[in-house]
Amino acid sequence: MAKGLDVGTMNLISAQQEGAETVFVQQRNSFVEIEYSDMAEQMLSRSDVLNIRKDDKVHVLGDDALKFATIFNSETRRPMQRGILSSEESSAIPMIKLITEQVVGEPNHPGESIYFSSPADPIDSELSTLYHEKTMESMLGDTGYDPEPINEGMAVIYSELADNDFTGLGVSFGAGMTNVCLAYYAVPVMKFSIARGGDWVDEQTAQATGTPVDKVTTIKEDDFELNFTTDVGGVEGALAIYYENLLDYVIKNIAREVDEEDVESGLDVPVVVTGGTSSPDGFDELFEDHIREASIPFSIDDVGSVDEPLYSVARGALVAARSEEQANGDGHDGDDEEAEAAADSAED
Question: 65 pLDDT exceeds 90?
Fold first, then answer.
């Protein structure tokens, strides 16, 4: 047995193999603080709402945080910001620990392998990812896992480019960052992150339209389409403007890094685009239009879309964890058939 974990600014998602299926568990990586009362405690205790009491406050975590924020007209708070643990949120570590435990559960056996996503250092910011990575590693180790970080962009390669011998360009548009990895036969040639993602789009849209950020996020996640023909002057129109600006910025940085890394010209590279921020209809087409117009020394063989972009990183982390477990010959009582299914899936 093994697990993969996508540690995202917006969502925490785990993946594990159960027979022939990959099962995902997801929670929103956020919380909201409400006043404690006996009635609130009674109602929450009878529900499945993930919550914890701290002094005279109750913290509602995960998927229900956004609902409670809307009801109580307050803003959700995030354990992570710009792709890493937030230095501005005093409750970041205890909150993300609770949410992570809900997502990954207990290890199936002591020292179970778990690969968790970690962003590369951004090329357009002085942010360092080291503290975030080591904190998550320690947190998962304390829970009983054998944790190993995997670059988020490389996880996309593992998840989506098996049919291309793990060769190509993987771009993961997350909430806090955008991660990019160019790999050749599963060896990373270039990997970096950009300190802009879906949160940047939401924040710019909120500022431009005078709409609360949580409201913008809800609109974006509710059947928003990148068609540039509706809601001129409204939230959806502003979202389209800032989405296109984000794509221009990301592709400009990809072209610059390819040039600086002196990546060999003449390559015929498949590209896969994924991540929660890439979910709106029309995103893939817009990305392809822009990257084909960019000055990049290698040719773009194909720009592929993903059916479930939110799960790509977790799936890729799981592939890496299963591959290591298989290579190490790890096996546990009662897991033989499941291990064989996992190994076959990792090879496909």
Answer: no
Class of domain 2-30+67-150+310-347: alpha beta
Give the separation between CA 59 and CA 54, rounded to whole angstroms.
Answer: 7
| Domain-wise residue ranges, the chain | 2-30+67-150+310-347, 31-66, 162-309
Give residue-wise pLDDT tens across range 321-345.
999 888 887 655 444 444 444 444 4
Does residue 334 sit in helix, strand or coil?
A: coil
Residues of the chain with pLDDT > 70, as a percent, come to: 90
By CB neighbour count within 10 A (0-12 exposed, 13-18 middle, 19+ buried), where does 25 fall?
A: middle
Residue 228 CB neighbours (<10 A): 15
Confidence (pLDDT) at 329:
75
Interhelix angle for 213-221 vs 63-71, to 10°?
130
Q: Give the amino acid at 58.
A: V
Determine how β-strand 178-184 pairs with β-strand 80-81.
unpaired
CATH code of the domain occupying 162-309: 3.30.420.40
pTM over 0.85: yes
**What pLDDT shows up at residue 335?**
44
pLDDT at 341: 45
Taking 60 as the threshold, does the pLDDT of residue 38 lie above it? Answer: yes
66 HSE (CA, 13 A, CB side):
16
Tell me the C-alpha distance between 22 and 15, whole Å.
Answer: 6
Estimate the share of the chain in helix, then strand, then coil, as percent rounded to the nearest 5: 45, 25, 30
Burial (CB count within 10 angstroms: exposed 0-12, middle 13-18, buried 19+), residue 326: middle
